[in-house]
Each structure stands twice: as structure tokens, then as C-alpha cells.
Design a protein that fits this description.
It is a single chain. With 422 residues, this protein is mostly helical. The protein folds into two domains: 185 residues, Growth Hormone, Chain: A; 198 residues, MFS general substrate transporter like domains (Growth Hormone, Chain: A, Up-down Bundle). Helices cover 78% and strands 0% of the residues. The protein is globular and about 55 Å long. It holds the Pfam family MFS_1. InterPro entries: MFS (IPR011701), MFS_trans_sf (IPR036259). Keywords: Cell membrane, Membrane, Transmembrane, Transmembrane helix. Its main location: membrane.
Length: 422
């Protein structure tokens, strides 16, 4: 029997290092993204922001299933570090370019490679939790990303006027390289996770097997409409909400404070989702979190009072945090370990597709259209919540599956040492 390194079972240091460095890398990503958005805005082309977002989303949307199949078949430890290094290289080259579209092409390539690195990181997470429950580990990852999204945009917008886009892209290349170095150190302490069967394997069969593993879970199928509609809704709001909130806030400072309320709420929600009381209630986290988000976006569209929108955003952010943790928990609980890479890649594909749809739909034709588009976004999210609620109720009645507790999927003879104790 292979002896498992003691640090993996007794130390939380690898997980904490991963949370900290990943959060720093997200700040770098936000710096790069903000630099490109502000560059587009400065050129006076309103649709350039949408084109930038689509250029990142569409290649990832098309290639995500193939990336997930590769992670399922090969060693995610090697994929993680190598792909992060390639991402850093693409972003670094982009920093040296002067042409806007050349930068977009390089960042799109980095985003495609990110499918492999993020799917590998997700598949490896149970090996890096040490004594921490996987639900709390997911919660910590969500807290770290929420903090990064709170700090990143405001810091990036301020720095852009001082240093410009090239240096901000260079910072992103540096933070990604730091994450790559961290990944290389962390994977030395873990064994390879379970992989897909090597016999007669090919890429297209791997894509098919990954989709089959997802489709075979009735609970994942029941929540799929909600996941799609929530992501479309938030993407519509992300575009239309910029115009609407700036219109009613009256100042950039108040606008920034209102936006920060959502990020603060998401930190609180992500923490609560990792508690022992709420962590097992996966469907409550997903559906209840979606409901909070839907109501917050509706409140944004139906009122013109910034302080009311700010309070609604705290609640919506809490729902966002619990929803994100719930989705991560559901994948680990419902998908066999050999296909968690594909599951995360397909989720990324859904995210990219929904973002593309939301950005196209949410771009106002005139500034006066912004409020109505925000209301449409809230209704869209609310429809997703209702569909998921009905689907889960029917599933419970027909199959007697509780909606508050999800039974973990069979792990295909997975190593029992990956089960994390309290």
C-alpha cells in the first residue's frame, strides 16, 4: 500500500497557500481585464467592450469539453503547472504588444489554456484540503475570489490612469507565474487523482464520457436551467447595470460603493455556505442563493434609490456566495472523481456561453434602455429559480431524493483517503 504524505492529512497549509495565491492571481486577472475594458472605452467604441468579452468567451465555450477530457485522462498535477506557465507567457507577450486586437488574441489564447489549468486545479482540490472539510475548502476558495473581486476592479481602475495597460498586463503575467510556481510546489505533496480508463481512449470519447457522467445525475440535470439562467441574468445586469447605476448614483464614488455591496455580501455568503449547518444543504445553497440574486437584480431595476439598491446588493451578494459554493459542492458530490475535470470544464462552457448571450442581450441600444434590461435580467433569474424548484420537487416526489441533502455519487473505487474528516 502506498504511504500518503502526512502533511496532506494533517496540514491546512497547502490549501491556505492555494487560496491566497489564487486570490492574488484573480486580482491580476482583474487588472488585465480592466485595462482592456478601459482601453476600449477610451477609444469611444461602445461595442468594443462586448467584442472583448466575446473574444474571451467564445473560444473557451467551444474548446472547454476537450480541455476537461484531457484533464480526466492525463495527470492533472502536470497539466496545472504547465498550463499556468503557458498562460503567464501569453499574458506577458500581450503586455509587449501595442495593438489592441493582438492583445485580445493573446488573452483569448490564455483564456483557452485556463480551461485546462482551472479544471486540473478543481480536480486536485480534494487532495489539498488536509484536515479541512471539502465544503469548507470550497467556501474558502469562494471567499478568496470574492475578496479579489472586491479589491481588483477598484484598484485596477485607479492604477490604470497612472501606469497604463502594458504594465497592468505585466502584473497579471507575474501573478499568474507566481500561481504556477505555487502549483508546482503543491503537486509535489499529492498523489495523482483517479483518471479515466486509458484503454481505447480518444479525445472525442473522453468528451462524450464526461457529458454522460454529468447527464446521468438527475440532480445536476434538475438544476441546469437555473445555472444557465442565473449566469445569463448576471451577465445582462453586468452590462446594463453599468449604465443604470451610473445614471441613478450621480457620482463614480457612490457607484463604486453600491457595487462593492455585492462583493461584501458574497464574502459573507461564501463563509456561511461552509458552516456545518448549511454545507450539507446543497440544493438550498444553489436555489436559495439564486433566489436572493434574482430579487436583488429586480430591486435594482425597480427602484432609483441608491441606498436601497446597496442593501439589496448585500443580500444578492450573499446569495451569489452561497450559490457558487453550492455548485462546487454539487459537482464533487454528484460526479464520479474520474470526471470532475470534465464537469468543471462543462460548467466553464456554460458560463462562457451564458456570458456571451448575456452581454449581447444586455448591451443597451440607448441609455434609456438600461433600466428595462436590468428588470429583464431579474425576471430571467427568477424564472430559473422557479424551474429548478419545480424540477427538484418532482424529483423528490418521484425518486424520494431529499432536496436539502445530496447523497455523494459513487467514486468508482476512489481512494478512500480522499474523504476529508471534520
Amino acid at each position: 500500500m502506498t504511504r500518503i504524505p502526512t502533511i496532506r492529512r494533517t496540514s491546512a497549509v497547502p490549501l491556505i497557500a492555494l487560496v491566497v495565491i489564487s486570490s492574488l492571481s484573480i486580482v491580476g486577472d482583474e487588472a488585465a481585464s480592466m485595462s482592456m475594458v478601459l482601453t476600449a472605452v477610451n477609444q469611444g467604441q461602445t461595442w468594443m467592450v462586448t467584442w472583448f468579452s466575446l473574444a474571451l468567451a467564445i473560444p473557451a465555450m467551444i474548446l472547454a469539453p476537450f480541455g476537461g477530457a484531457i484533464v480526466d485522462r492525463y495527470d492533472p498535477r502536470k497539466i496545472w503547472g504547465v498550463c499556468l506557465a503557458l498562460q503567464s507567457l501569453c499574458i506577458g507577450i500581450a503586455a509587449l504588444q501595442d495593438d489592441f486586437w493582438s492583445r485580445i488574441a493573446l488573452l483569448a489564447a490564455s483564456n483557452v489554456i485556463n480551461i485546462l489549468s482551472s479544471s486540473a486545479a478543481f480536480a486536485l482540490l480534494p487532495k489539498l484540503t488536509g484536515p479541512i472539510r471539502i465544503e469548507r475548502a470550497n467556501s474558502l476558495m469562494a471567499i478568496g475570489s470574492s475578496l479579489a473581486y472586491l479589491v481588483g476592479p477598484a484598484l485596477s481602475a485607479w492604477i490604470f490612469g497612472i501606469v497604463g495597460a502594458s504594465l497592468m498586463l505585466g502584473v497579471n503575467a507575474g501573478t499568474t507565474a507566481l500561481l504556477a510556481a505555487t502549483a508546482l510546489v503543491l503537486v509535489l505533496r499529492v498523489e495523482r487523482p483517479e483518471s479515466a480508463e486509458p484503454e481505447s481512449w480518444n479525445l472525442f470519447n473522453g468528451v462524450r464520457d464526461g457529458w454522460r457522467a454529468i447527464r446521468s445525475s438527475a440532480i445536476v440535470a434538475a438544476t441546469m436551467p437555473l445555472l444557465i439562467l442565473i449566469m445569463i441574468s448576471t451577465s445582462i445586469e453586468a452590462v446594463a447595470g453599468v449604465f443604470w447605476l451610473r445614471q441613478i448614483s450621480g457620482s463614480d464614488t457612490l457607484y463604486g460603493l453600491v457595487l462593492s455591496c455585492w462583493a461584501v455580501g458574497s464574502i459573507i455568503g461564501a463563509y456561511l455556505a461552509g458552516t456545518k449547518r448549511l454545507a450539507p444543504r446543497t440544493m438550498l445553497l444553489i436555489v436559495g442563493g439564486g433566489l436572493c440574486m434574482a430579487l436583488a437584480i429586480l430591486a435594482e431595476g425597480l427602484t432609483t434609490i441608491a441606498i436601497i439598491i446597496g442593501m439589496a446588493f448585500v443580500i444578492g451578494g450573499m446569495g451569489n456566495g452561497t450559490h457558487n459554493v453550492g455548485v462546487r459542492n454539487m459537482i464533487f458530490q454528484q460526479i464520479p472523481q474520474a470526471h470532475t475535470g470534465s464537469a468543471w470544464a462543462y460548467y466553464r462552457m456554460l458560463t462562457s456561453t451564458s456570458v456571451a448571450i448575456g452581454y449581447i442581450v444586455g448591451t443597451p441600444r440607448t441609455p434609456g434602455d438600461a433600466q428595462s434590461m436590468v428588470i429583464v435580467a431579474g425576471v430571467c433569474a427568477l424564472v430559473g429559480v422557479l424551474v429548478a424548484f419545480v424540477a427538484l420537487r418532482l424529483l423528490r416526489l418521484h425518486r424520494r431524493i431529499p432536496t436539502s441533502h445530496v447523497t455523494p455519487a459513487p467514486r468508482d473505487d476512489a481512494d478512500q483517503s480522499t474523504v476529508v474528516s471534520n
